[in-house]
Specification:
Blueprint (H helix, E strand, L loop, with lengths): L8 H10 L2 H11 L2 H4 L8 E3 L12 E10 L2 E13 L8 H20 L7 E8 L34 E4 L12 H12 L13 H4 L4 H13 L6 H9 L4 H43 L4 H8 L4 H13 L3 H6 L2
Parallel strand pairs: 3-4, 4-5
Antiparallel strand pairs: 1-2, 2-3
Helix pairs in contact: 1-5, 1-7, 7-9, 9-11
Length: 326
């Protein structure tokens, strides 16, 4: 998935950290069952490009797909599908969506390899960023309720298990993995509870080993969120970063992002002034403006168009003549 296709700052931070197979392996191998983790040749883990998500869910989900040989049978392959959810509510049918994604992965496998390779085993893993603990079964057959109970029905029911990593259930100091992976998970854990400027994220012992590229992505993440950060507190945190490369880069990037924000704010302000000038000219000349016309003017984002409309509002002989110039 191209970076510009990601809709949320969470997506970019998550993918910056865990698109690296080393970071992903350190996370996944500790959350898969020990017997399963022992089967996968983690040093040969590879990222498979692409996404298998539904288009309408991309605003709150990101996924990464990895493949690796199985230690017991190098000719066989395993895929680990890591789904990141940053939504505020538990999805009781997430197992059904995982099955849909698994089928898409297998279909793509068949498209690439035909019948020359057996289908890979897929281990689905869900990373949930939510301040609340999800209470749901990680077994697909649980979706059938009591129908899954009689033994004679089970052969007719598809079933699989998925691993659910709930950040809300993991204390900051219990997060394990590579420095980059730990940092991303601490940030994602801190965001829902309003602790992005807390010591767990700005841990100098951890930041000493975090890559500059990831830290820069984190700074961009802070500025891209809809909730504004405490700027003075943020600046103090940057000055206390002991890693000189991260500190210098973060200060430069923060200054650039603030500058871009001011420019954008000034442009938005000028656009709004132009819209109001058009509306005031129309109101002075022709009286109350119909709501539909007002909405149309307020939706215009082209400064040249608004400049022309202001002139039209001044010289038009009637409101109808002005509307004809829209």
């Amino acid at each position: 998935m191209a970076d510009e296709d990601l809709h949320q700052p969470h997506d970019k931070l998550f993918k910056e950290g865990f698109s690296d197979p080393a970071n992903a392996a350190a996370l996944l191998r500790q959350h898969l069952p020990a017997e399963v983790a022992a089967l996968i040749q983690w040093d040969q883990l590879q990222l498979i490009p692409g996404s298998f998500l539904d288009d309408d869910l991309r605003h709150s989900h990101t996924d990464l797909l990895f493949s690796a040989p199985l230690a017991a049978n190098p000719e066989s392959s395993a895929c680990v599908h890591l789904l990141f959810e940053h939504q505020s509510t538990c999805d009781p049918f997430i197992a059904l969506r995982l099955l849909r994604y698994m089928v898409r992965i297998w279909e793509e496998w068949i498209r690439l390899y035909g019948n020359s390779k057996p289908l890979p085993v897929i281990f689905p893993v869900v990373l949930a960023q939510d301040r609340r603990i999800w209470k749901l079964s990680t077994q697909f057959s649980a979706l059938f309720g009591n129908a899954a109970s009689p033994d004679y029905l089970r052969p007719f029911l598809p079933d699989f298990a998925f691993r659910l990593i709930q950040l809300a259930a993991i204390p900051f100091d219990a997060i394990r993995g590579t420095p980059d992976g730990i940092f991303v998970l601490r940030v994602l854990n801190a965001e829902p509870i309003g602790r992005l400027l807390g010591n767990a994220v700005w841990d100098n012992n951890l930041l000493a080993n975090v890559s500059r590229r990831l830290f820069d992505r984190f700074i961009s993440f802070l500025f891209a969120r809809t909730d504004p950060i405490d700027r003075p507190h943020f600046i103090r945190k940057i000055h206390r970063v002991r890693n000189p490369a991260l500190r210098t880069s973060a200060m430069t990037l923060a200054q650039q992002l603030r500058h871009e924000g001011r420019i954008e704010g000034r442009e938005d302000g000028r656009m709004e002034e132009r819209r109001q000038s058009v509306l005031e000219a129309l109101d002075l000349r022709f009286g109350p403006i119909p709501d539909g016309l007002r909405d149309s003017i307020e939706a215009i984002a082209d400064p040249e168009k608004l400049r022309a409309l202001l002139r039209s509002a001044i010289v038009s002989a009637s409101l109808e003549a002005f509307v004809a110039s829209l």
